Prior knowledge:
heterotrimer, A: 265 residues, alpha/beta, Rossmann fold, 2 domains, nine-stranded mixed sheet, two-stranded antiparallel ribbon, globular, C: 400 residues, alpha+beta, Butyryl-Coa Dehydrogenase, subunit A, domain 1, Butyryl-CoA Dehydrogenase, subunit A, domain 2, Butyryl-CoA Dehydrogenase, subunit A, domain 3, four-stranded mixed sheet, 49% helix
Amino acid sequence: MKIGVLVKNVPDTETKIRLTADKQGIETQGVKYVMNTYDEFAVEEALKIRERLQDGTTVTAITLGPERVVETLRTALAMGADEAIHVDDPAFEGGDSLTNARIIARVVEPMGLDLILGGKQGIDYDAAQTCSALAEALGTAQALIAVELKWSEDNQSLEVRRRIEGGDEIVHVKLPAVISCEKGLNEPRYASLPGIMKAKKKEIKKVDLTGVGLDSAEVGASGSATRVVGYSPLSERPECRILEGEPVEIVKELVRALREDAKVL
Amino acid sequence: MTNDILVFAEVREGSFKRINAELVSAASVLVDKLGGVVHIAVLGGAVDGAVEEARSYATGKVYVVKSDVLDSYSTQGFASGLEAVLKECDPAIVLFGATAMGKDLSTRVAARARGSLMTDCTELDVEDGALKAKRPVYSGKAYADVITTKATIKMASLRPNIYPAAQKTGNLADVAEVSLPITLDQIGAMVKEIVVTSAGRKDVTEAEIIVAGGRSLKSEDNFKILEELADVLGASVGASRAAVDAGYAPHSRQVGQTGKVVNPKLYIACGISGAIQHLVGMRTSKVIVAINKDPNAPIFQHANYGIVGDLFEIVPIMTQQFKELLAS
Amino acid sequence: MNKFAMSGRRIAHIRGEKMSAYFDLSEEERLIQQTARDFADSEVAPMAAENDANGQFPRGLVEKLAKLGFMGMLIPEQYGGSNAGNFALVLALEEINRACASTGVTMSVHNSLASSPIVGFANEETKKKYLPKMAKGELLGAYALSEASAGSDAASLQARAVKDGNEYVLNGTKSWITSGAEADLFVVMLRTDPSERAKGISAFAVERDTNGFSVGKKENKLGLRASSTVQLIFEDARVPAENMLGSEGEGFKIAMWTLDGGRIGIGTQAVGIAQACLDASVSYAKEREQFGKLIGEFQAIQWKIADMAMNIEAARLMIYRAARLRDRKEPHTKEAAMAKLFASEMANRAAREAVQIYGGAGYLKDSSVERYFRDVRITEIYEGTSEIHRIVISRFLLKN
């Protein structure tokens, strides 16, 4: 089986997001970038499939972004991916998810992948669009927010358990397909030292605008139909009112306040 | 292209979901500026009831794609049906709920139509023909203001509980039947079964009130006191990651970074300290009540009302008081 | 191993100003650091307090460390190691020590003091016999130089090895042996020639189940309570002659060369503990209120924290430099001594200040800083006391 894994490099979950003075972006200085949490589940799942099949299955990690994203490809290689592709060109700057998915589609289409795994969303822009848009561009099946994959005997189809409101959907999926991964699917491994040392020697393949064969007007900001015009902080909540007194009295006051002041009951 | 807005109506088990009425309400505000009407698209197998309901909300038409192929949800089947509706009604804007189905379908359709898509919006507006949205980014640590930049079809998914449910128009809109251009064998992924995990209770992402507990609940059994309060309030029960990791609550209830993002009217945090990973999942709640023994717990910096005390003492009193209030 | 099992993973590691961001780390060095950091936060830190309280050796953690390749960092690839080098070892050790100094010293001793002299001086058969198992963590290594009456004056050691055919017969007692209760393989310095001092010492690799070799009393200590410190007793223990490292009389030289590496490891341990003290102090300063404001708003606390951060950064740079020199096989005895001395003394001050910032709370077993305060004390004593290091450094300046 040929598996592709989409990975992305995002600010660590602990990062404090500060807006720039002009509110046009976030302060990137001092921000630590790591592999997107949900993409770790995708890499792990791909490696597990390869280990289970033992049939020469290959795992290729793919990312689109500036130079700093290479580190995330290295992480994927160190975890055990066989190959890595870095899609990068100055023309790609400012592209939205739908546009970037079209670029990635051009890269993966000739590879003849059977399965593409990705995170359920990037924890930076939280758009949750890439996997689905890629499936559309490739014309394949899709299953998003997967927490369990159960394979058929011939490994040509599978049942995906995906999270929905109030329960799970069991989706029957025929390959080729794009599947986005959710927490609970597996427990991602650490990049081991031998893995890291091996990853150091692996070549990362670069693909640029010419390589994807698109016109510069179709990619990046000019190719995108949405644009972020600014950022704003979360609205401040008024200072917390600490209710004091005997427990019963406090609760009575709370009930009154929720009903009469806040009007949420 | 018309100046109309199309609302994709989510139908589960034959019933018209509350989010649909919220979408109509958001659409009516926008459509006033555009000078068009609000259409509703209903897709599925057995959807007659939902169609009737949709007719009482739409100011335009109700587009119906009814087919056995759509008995179960499939991204490709529904995308194909909606694509056919778009051809008929040619709206300027399509709205979806930011639900599992809405997000799954909206991206596929937007990509196919070469349109624009903004996910998980909390505010929508139109200006000079562009659709403007506010949407949380960086796991809810900030908002991005996004606009559409092209004349192509514009789509957005809207978070539940932002807009009030629309009032019915008092009329019944016309129905336009649209046939489904896809057959079963062309669909590579199809829902086989739905496993309900939170029987009788709304999912935390859909709930108007959430009672949530942290690790200080100390056991799965103790979550019962939250269940009792939730029963009185008609609320859902949420949990912090610490409580989920400790095995006190299932992951489907986890609120926060690696769990769900919720947006209720009232969030009651019981014994939750307020780690950043939890806060990003609930801090857009309208009103937050925090109960914690530790007066320095960060949750108090994000709450509207705080009670410094033992949740095992406070929560049962709350259950009792709310019960009395709602009985009166 | 579940990277996501614990909440609070990566907490305290977004220290934007952490110096390594400015130090030239290669991509794989950053990955090694990241892996060690994730592992330390999610697997090591949660068990540290409990292991300390029970004096429980973290055997399970050692196995997991081995699985990730952290027990073979100085072992060449042909023997199953990762050959990551001293600099990478330092990056990893800091993270592990930040979470738990007992686990840190176990890893440090195994890599720097046990595997390293075997790589450097054992014959091919011995390397093939031991190194792959050491890299896999199946053999835990320890190092035995000190004796009851030969501490700082190591060259005066008395335990004997006498040649008898193809074997050496070992007699005597070693003291203060870290990991001794659990280790499977010991690098032991023994006197083969009583007529010489330093030149009469030879080094041996000794297996735990050697007849006549036993582990004596386990010491009850102030800190590092999850790491054992024991006596080793040799009573006519017989070791094959091919287990000698280097040749007869080279033992002291091997011991000192080995200690240069070990000292970089202990300096790193001090930096790791100091960083833990700083992380704890910063978070406490941001939450503890007195006189109606956060204590971090008082200048007295701000200065303590600034001094801690500055000293940690200086020590870390010294450690990095010594490790780089050792990897390049350039002279580094003075640099290793300076780094270890500076790091251990600054870390003891940092732990003192961390307890001070916590006040009464810092004196309680419930607080992590109480453990840091006890654990850090040994760094000024073992692998060369501060006094010995001052002698080593001044010798470089004053001789000739």
